[in-house]
Amino acid sequence: MTQKLLVAKTKSRKPCFMVMTGVCEFAGLSLALALLISSPGFYRVVYFISTGYAFSISAMAVAAGWLYRDSLTGPACAQLALLLLYGLRLGTYLLRRELSPQFAKELADVHSRAEKVPRSVRPFIWISVSVLYVLMFSPAACTVQALFAKRELPVGWLFAGVAVMGGGLLMESVADAQKNAYKRTNPHRFCDVGLYRLVRCPNYLGEVLFWLGSLLAGISAYQAYWQWAMALAGFVCITLIMMGSTKRLEAKQAERYGSRDDYQQYVKSVPVLFPLLPVYSLRKVRVYLE
């Protein structure tokens, strides 16, 4: 009787053990991919956080899709597909911008500032951003591992998260396209058309929404506190990074357009990052990941 009970308890714990072990193993693979793909940052530091970021996410999505292809459901496939599309879109956008004469001076300034980072600090940046990419991808990793362990996942959160991810990706893509189109005909004026009437940084808002959706999509799959911790840490970090990016852009635009009356009216009437919130500047907000 005692032996049968012990066997029953062991069987009941097997799926959880499989998920925990599988997530850790996949996290190790994801970290290896991120370290490899981000390594061009030793040539140019900015690649740690630009193409290294974008293509690391895509590579993790491909790896998860291939390794767990036999247990994926439609919504899980959609989640991975959006992560793959997100990384490819961002990565190709960054590569095209690098080759564009329109951004030559701005990119030269970015590379010049980045190259001032001491070489002794670069390995730390390389490892820390690679860990961050693993944390950001962890909701999808938890989902595919739970499906692999034959857990029945309620699809409500997964569907909701995928919908938010799709909306965020669409917003980010449209915002980039609108700004590029506007700048081709108005290179010396700030962009205040389309989504830029809603918030001043809709591309950054789209990024936050995309990763919020990823966090929501994994809610049904989180079983342990450390899974919640990984997923929340990834989302909080990318949100703070987007807030820091907003602060830098705000300062740059103030320097470039601050003397214009139409720009002053624009910044006083359009929220800087989050719509419907009367927050028109982040310049005095302390952000720890800039």
What does this structure look like?
- With 290 residues, this protein is mainly α.
- Helices cover 71% and strands 0% of the residues.
- The chain has nine helices and no strands.
- It has helices at residues 2-38, 51-67, 74-99, 104-114, 122-148, 155-185, 202-217, 225-257, 261-269.
- It starts with a helix and ends in a 21-residue tail after the last helix.
- Mean pLDDT is 87; it is low at 1-19.
Q: Which helices and strands, and how do they pair?
A:
Elements: H1 2-38, H2 51-67, H3 74-99, H4 104-114, H5 122-148, H6 155-185, H7 202-217, H8 225-257, H9 261-269
Helix pairs in contact: 1-2, 1-5, 2-3, 2-5, 3-5, 3-6, 5-7, 5-8, 6-7, 7-8
**What profile does the largest beta sheet have?**
none
| Average pLDDT reading | 87
- The shape, in one word, is globular
- What's the number of helices? 9
Counting helices, strands and paired strands, the structural category is mainly alpha
List the helices and strands in order.
Answer: HHHHHHHHH
Strand content: under 5%
Radius of gyration: 21 Å
